[in-house]
Amino acid sequence: MTDNLQLNSEGKLKHFLTIEGLNKSLLTEILDIAESFIGMNDQQIKKVPLLRGKTIVNLFFENSTRTRTTFELAAKRLSADVLSMSISTSSTSKGESLLDTIRNLEAMFVDMFVVRHGISGAAHFIAQQTAPHISVINAGDGQHAHPTQAMLDMFTIRQIKKNFSNLRVAIIGDILHSRVARSQIQALNTLGAAEIRVIAPKTLLPSHVESLGVNVSHNLTAGLKDIDVIIMLRLQKERMSSALLPSESEYFKCFGLTEDKLKIAKPDAIVMHPGPINRGVEIDSKVADGPQSVILKQVSNGIAIRMAIMAMAMQKQGVM
Amino acid sequence: MSQIHIKQGRIIDPTNNINRIGCVYIADGKIVSVTNQPAGFKPDITINAHDQIVCPGFIDLSTRLRQPGQSRKATFSSETVAAASSGVTTMCLQPDTSPIIDTPAVAELVKELSEKANYPQIFPIAALTRKLEGTELSSMLSLKQAGCIAVGNANQPVKNLLILRRAMEYAASHDLLVMFRPSDYWLGNSGCAHEGAVATRYGLPGIPEEAETIALAQCLELAELTGCRVHFGQLSCKRSVIKIHQAKKYGMKVSADVAIHQLHLTENDIIPFDSNYHVLPPFRTEADKQYLRQGLVSGTINSICSDHQPHDIDAKLGAFPETESGVSSLETLLPLMLKLVSQRSITLEQGIASLSENPARVLHINSGALTVGFAADVCIFDPELEWQINSDNWKSQGLNTPFWGQIMTGRVIHTLQAGKIIHCLEKLG
After folding, report:
1. Do B274 and A1 touch (CB under 8 A)?
2. Domain tally for chain B?
């Protein structure tokens, strides 16, 4: 179902919901098209007319600054009309169902939904229910997937490391609750990374995590050996209150990335983080702002990747 | 009352150890003979059961008909027709209606609704605790006197073990069967899928099998302490079967059932985010499924129930974790049981016993057999008739089945309840 839903009859992208079911050549195509947009950032006029006359609705049921802003900028640089809506859960609990919200917006003749929702499967559900001409881009659903984040991370890795085949990547932190990690793991495996290691205490790892195609370590010092790419994940404060961890300080002691720990990885290892970062909780400021950090590069690349994905998903309407 | 002659069917009656081609004679709502035609028997109706199986009507230990309170999902009139067309002649109703079956007045209302529907015999299960809140005991004796056959807390937890102990002691004092769907509230952690590889891949909150086995172990200990007669419903995993097996070996008065769909589907069958697969307890692994089947063969698991939970369309329209759990499953009960037979997991006799004789024994009722003198609850089915699950054939108001559109093999032709024909398949095919 996953692949059928995302691809049209010619195998082209229709929705972008998850990395699962997309092959290497399609992921590479996304990266290549994003590459062609990257030069635009330096131009006087940062716009192309690819989506002129199209209406894109950013539908954010969960808070976000970075993702929403880069989606909005990406749409504007493609010359689309953009409407950004923040829908708190309280307004949906007033009685209007998710489906009714979608139906109402459909009635306003939109062409694309960019959806962030706190429940796994929400983007799939919208893609199944929405009118056939509308594309759905998943901007993060529950603990399931955040495929545009994963692709901008792949883009950043490729920019610096050129290819994936020899790369050893460590993903550190709250894998259990992370849609970013799930999408990154699928993308890295599809693009042929040599090894993916997840490093976290057992309380922050989902059961059967190895079945995702990763090696597991509970020790940061041992886990960082020979690593080319370090991906830190954000630690939510509520993990302490739900008894998954004893304290921020103990977490930082065990799993926080410091300059000393960073030295264990390969000397040219890069440090990534999907943001927003918790300085002094999962990452030391010196590392976050240090020479090996590419965290802000990720943010810049987010625009190009989202432009590429939005343009590709609209190609059925003859935009590319 | 009329006399009915069921002619030349294959009679399978596990209680009386019958498996042969023959006739069943019914008069005044009762079985009068399964051998020779009684003297003076003049049938008003003759049912030709050639090439069909004649067996006791099915007894379903866990159903929800959604009335009172949720008639947008289903009603007695829609669901009793579905039950009759599925060969079900007796059904137990879970207490989580609205209002909850925790007072004699609600139990009587349910009885009244069932009498109006005039179809299968309906036994309400009374709430074990008031409002199912797990804090105060319900008036179990009054509820029993109002027609409730057992007590249970449906899907709601009794978090405080002292209250659970007292509830079981009180139930035991009145010789009431306590029915549990074992599930630890905290370990369940509001999950919606089996905690395993599939839930991990799709980011679905998982329910570990320990949520079931730990709750089961606690109830078994309390059953031992209180001498309470306990039935565990809708088991989902291997280690639950092992625990029941050990308890029975030890001589405890426990019984167990499994929902029919648990014997066929696993976590790997879940079509990602298709809410028709959202069921509690969740579909688990292939090993669990095989062990549940073996439990049925060994007798560790006594019976198969439908765990029928019809829903309105809106209840299943949403992102998977947000949808309501449950399958509309009365009408797949027989064909899915027959599928177990065709897959050689169980024999036809075992399958029929698990739907009739065994649940009758769990409930201590004189039913589930074609014994002379018993009420004539009879199911006559064609084991080879194929039919498709579609809106033409489906009777339940709840369309929520993962088997929608599939071809099923085996269909009920006639159902008799106390000698009255409550279902007759008009058009074959």
Report:
1. yes
2. 1
Q: Which domain holds residue B319?
A: 57-363
Nearest-CA distance B198 → chain A (Å): 9
Where in the sequence is the domain holding A290, given as residue range(s)? 147-299
Q: What does the alpha-carbon distance between residue B329 and residue B326 come to, in Å, rounded to a whole number?
A: 9
Q: Locate the chain A residue with the closest alpha carbon to B271.
A: A1
What CATH number did the domain enclosing A224 receive?
3.40.50.1370
d(CA A2, CA A144): 13
What does the alpha-carbon distance between residue A290 and residue B172 come to, in Å, rounded to a whole number? 70
Q: Is residue B208 part of a domain?
A: yes
What confidence tens digit (pLDDT) does each residue in B13-35 have?
A: 999 999 999 999 999 999 999 99
ipTM of model: 0.91
Measured distance CA(B179)–CA(B126) in Å, rounded: 10
User: Measured between beta carbons, which residues in chain A are less than 8 angstroms from residue B206?
Assistant: 206-207
Angle between the N-to-C axes of helices B238-249 and B286-298, in degrees from 0 to 180, rounded to the nearest 10: 30
Nearest to B171 by CA among B195, B198, B139: B139
Answer whether residue B427 is part of any domain. Answer: no
- Measure in Å the smallest separation between the Cα of A268 and chain B Cα atoms: 31
B307 counts as catalytic:
yes
Regarding whether A153 and A130 lie in a shared domain, the answer is: no
Backbone angles phi, psi at A306, to 5 degrees: -70, -35
Clarify whether residues A295 and A151 are in a common domain: yes
Is B268 part of the contact surface with chain A (CB cutoff 8 Å)?
no
Contact across the interface for A98 and B318, Cβ inside 8 Å: yes
Dihedral of the alpha carbons of B302, B117, B316, B235, in degrees to the nearest 10: -10
- Does B370 map to a domain? no
Q: Do B196 and A208 touch (CB under 8 A)?
A: yes
Give pLDDT tens digits for B253-278: 999 999 999 999 999 999 889 999 99
Residue B247 is part of a domain; what is its CATH number?
A: 3.20.20.140
The amino acid occupying position B70 is: Q
Task: Going residue by residue through chain A, which has 320 residues, state the pLDDT in tens, using 9 for 90 and above.
Answer: 444 799 988 889 999 999 999 999 999 999 999 999 998 777 777 789 999 999 999 999 988 888 999 999 999 999 999 999 888 765 555 567 888 888 988 998 999 999 999 999 999 999 999 999 999 999 999 999 999 999 999 999 999 999 999 999 999 999 999 999 999 999 999 999 999 999 999 999 999 999 999 999 999 999 999 999 999 999 987 777 788 999 999 999 999 999 999 999 999 999 999 989 999 999 999 999 999 999 999 999 999 999 999 999 998 666 66
Q: Where are the alpha helices (DSSP H) in A18-173?
A: 24-38, 66-77, 89-92, 98-106, 122-129, 147-161
Provide the whole-model pTM.
0.93
Q: How far apart are CA B250 and CA B316, in angstroms?
A: 43
Residue of A nearest to B208 (CA): A207
Q: Inspect the interface and report whether the beta carbons of A144 and B322 lie closer than 8 Å.
A: no
Q: Are residues A50 and A113 in the same domain?
A: yes
Catalytic annotation, pick one of B96, B288, B307, B382? B307
Q: Out of B196, B274, B321, name the one closest to residue A207 (CB).
A: B196
With tokens 């097996």, the residue in question is B245
